[in-house]
What we know:
CATH superfamily of the largest domain: Naphthalene 1,2-dioxygenase Alpha Subunit, Chain A, domain 1
Structural class: alpha+beta
Bound molecules: FE2/S2 (inorganic) cluster, fe (ii) ion
Number of strands: 18
Strand order of the largest sheet: 12-18-17-16-15-14-13
Strand content: 35-45%
CATH topology of the largest domain: Naphthalene 1,2-dioxygenase Alpha Subunit, Chain A, domain 1
Order of helices and strands: EEEEEEEEHEEEEHHEEEEEEHH
Number of helices: 5
Helix content: 10-25%
CATH class of the largest domain: Alpha Beta
Radius of gyration: 22 Å
Oligomer: single chain
Amino acid sequence: MTDQHTVLDRGYANVPIPFGWFAVAMSGDIAPGEIKTLQYFATELVIWRGENGQVNAVDPFCPHLGAHLGVNSDVVGNDLRCPFHHWSFNGEGGVTDIPYTKLIPPKLKRSCLPTWPVEEKDGVIFVWYHPNKAAPKWEVARLPNCPDGEWVLAETHEWIINIHCQEITENGQDYAHFGAVHGVPYAPSTQFMNEGWVRRNTVVAEMKTPKGLMTGKIDVTATGPGQSMVEYTDVTHVVQSQQVTPINSQTTHVRWQMYHIPGLSEGRMRVTQARMRDLVKQINQDIPIWNRKRFNEHPLLVKGDGPMLAYREQYARYYQFDEENKTGSVAAGN
Length: 334
Ligand code: FES
Ligand SMILES: [Fe+2]
């Protein structure tokens, strides 16, 4: 029997894939000498790690006669060697070797294979996606400063979710769902700020603890469409580093790395672990709704709904693909 749900129009067909830095792998996913074909951004890219440790990313098809560079290819030194006629390419997409000719045209030596900008930061491999291959407009965001030494990576999680990536980060602005879906009260004090390519939310809430009321703070810093750092400061001190990566307009890969401060007592460790469990529980409450919801371009909003339209207005800049159209470049350079 056909799944009749698959014929529902969920409104994503006309929502493009935003440009930005996106996580495509964890550092540990690819060792020196390894090659991987990744499916993101409604296309494929081939990444490899050279002997020097550097990760490179290129388009999948060899410019010579079109072999797929992720199939039966090899890493030779720092370069990727095509399986079909053994041309080798460096990370700039330039030909470094053709075994049957000494005469490599200078143009091919410079670059003939389209590449993707790559950054490897805090254990995550990012590529810069732009449909017109425009250069990166901001830098990959790093973990916030840890007040007491180095953050301790406690847990990693990942999910593939059937929804456009814009809707996943919109969830934090959707205040009315906090009670309905997560059973937590409305955020009593919330600031929502756009600063160039960065969006910040700060939520301050009175929390009941065994030692009485205390003020808890949640700081969300989203840099571009692909990265959010969420810092919880209360009885625990936890950072949830989130990356969302479009597989296509309707499917998103979500990754989390959860960190806590070092030197926790047994008691604080228990509270910290409970907080992390709770965060995972919360996303698991959102996922069934995300997997089947529609994108409402014109939602029916009422007083009490959060600043989702302000969020969408800011987010729209990630769809300004035309370099001539400067409206997408407001506050560029940060
Ligand atoms: S197709 Fe790649 S070297 Fe010929
Ligand atoms: Fe949620």
